């Protein structure tokens, strides 16, 4: 212990004597470890950190799926939910919920929009969360006709109502309905998507048809004696029984059970979270590798400058292990200091990230602030990098040629070895930098391709607002009348070319599908129904989106609740289910027995409904006035910039009813930025990683060449005295440096090619060996490396031969 303390004191004094080296090494470590720790904090928050609920590992997300058609996530109907509750024993309790915006107002004041959710009364028991003031929902308050009540969030209570305890019993208007405030939820509770308002989810199994009505998200709390796998087995058995009892609505439907923490971001993208997290950790680890290689090169240079001291100590009897330990202690001191600075970087970056709101709702608000796991990771990363990247320089420096070292022979430093340890580190830096830059280039190319992919519709000059009419208390017929009236008013605004209404917009990242029975089509799996993307639309929908009509007609204004049911299908639908036939006049329906047939009156061109990267899939468009959904969107095509039209549309709707809540309002171009958010973020992050690695690699190349030139001053003087010109010396030094760089380029290209193949699913229409990304990146890296070689080489070529010959 005494010798260790002596080593610490000695190295601390040595670093204080060379503050520039210590500062550069600590900053380099801090950048590499800080970036790595920040990414680990994000991964920790997304995958490993427990949810903010008691025994959160026992909370599960229970949902339907359809394996035969690779549909992983489907909502749960009201009858299915009540059947699950009655038949299962794996869960202590189950609850259902959905999310919806709420317009909240006091008295007759102007309403303010908040994110809201509707729960069945069991939800708070599932989460084991209770109000800090008042009570939660009681039995029966989630049934139609019950007294209207509401719970509010802590932040809303403080900001809007001043934290007054008199809020209990106070009445407010929520989506036009007067409700009594019964409770205030704890600070920080925002389940499931930053909500601040909660209503009872009013459902009645007695009046809800199994094949109709809305669907919900279901969560449950496992019994202490039941595992997640056992719950999956039991729910799978229940799914089979329901399929036998209700084949028209449940055949081919399975039930899946997942830990809630696994879908804390968004059900549509959570399947990609783990691989993307692994990719980010791997890539940021490469940045750390480049940073550590830089520090290792600096330590090698420092040890070389001390080679005479080390040789004398060895000659006097010091053991090699004693010297290795002392040199290694210096590296660990630097890495721990860098780790401490890295924590400051991590705190700053994670606070910045937590203040950022992604352009889509997340299922659970992520907490990416550093915790014990992050502190442990930082300490482990600091120690590991200090040991691993300090050990090689320590071992290398503790075994010099004693005779040459004691004679102060410059060759003792090994500067003229063709492939020294310094060169190995430079090769690694160049190769890793190339891998990161090529990956960034692939994502940039992917972003460009995604923006130019043919979607099948014209996204420009389109504005829309989405609202919840049922949330404002409208029944179906009243909702139809309001929608017609609002669309007519908006369609008459100056600058509006055409207006319509629709249940869904293209590129909304949700896979809304329905089961259809198709006249004349018999599926091979025996299930009489097929699940198809489905969208109720209004007149001029195809005209506004400029989707070509290939046969028949569009949905018309006369296709209302009194007219025969009609639909327009896409060309892919016809190709798959009625190949080579005329689809006009053929029929489909929702239910095999009771539902009336829907006549096909038109065939549209194909377009992408869910995401940019999806394959073209069959689509069914029914008349929204005949199949009234629960959420509606009014969409317009404008003659000019659609941006200002969004506010005008909201004003027109609010003038008709101030209690209407909007859950989305933007232009279609803005919506596309949401769709492209993952690939845009990938390109931005990888560009940062790649440029940081490139900068570190350039510094590393410069340092090695500068050190080499300083060690070869005598040799350069001899060459110039014998007639070599400065240009000859310049070319010699640059070529020797570039040979090392080119080895790194070759290895980097091979590594980048291997990684790019693994990225295939995350890229849009980009080859694994995209020539633009590879050639462009190699050219940039070689250009930077040439500059890093040229600057010290030019300095060496300008050395006065007489001065150089006197240099030892």
Walk me through what this model shows.
The protein is elongated. The two termini are 40 Å apart. Mean pLDDT is 80; it is low at 265-272 and 410-418. It folds into three domains: 1-51 and 278-400, no CATH class; 59-263, no CATH class; 462-675, no CATH class. The protein is an alpha+beta fold. 48% of the residues lie in helices and 17% in strands. Helix 14 crosses helix 17 (643-656). It has 23 helices and 23 strands. It has a six-stranded mixed β-barrel with strand order 4-5-10-7-9-8. Strands 15-16-21-18-20-19 form a six-stranded mixed barrel. A four-stranded antiparallel beta sheet has the order 14-22-13-23. A hairpin with a 6-residue loop joins strand 4 and strand 5 (112-119).
Mean pLDDT: 80
Count of alpha and pi helical runs = 23
Please tally the β strands and state the result.
Answer: 23
Task: Decide which structural class fits the backbone.
Answer: alpha+beta
Distance between the termini: 40 Å
Give the biggest sheet. Answer: 6 strands, mixed, barrel
Globular, elongated, flat, extended or rod-shaped: what is the shape? elongated
User: In angstroms, what is the radius of gyration?
Assistant: 34 Å
Poorly predicted regions = 265-272, 410-418
Strand content: 15-25%
Strand ordering within the main sheet:
4-5-10-7-9-8
Helix amount: 40-55%
Question: How many domains make up the coordinates?
Answer: 3
Oligomerization = single chain
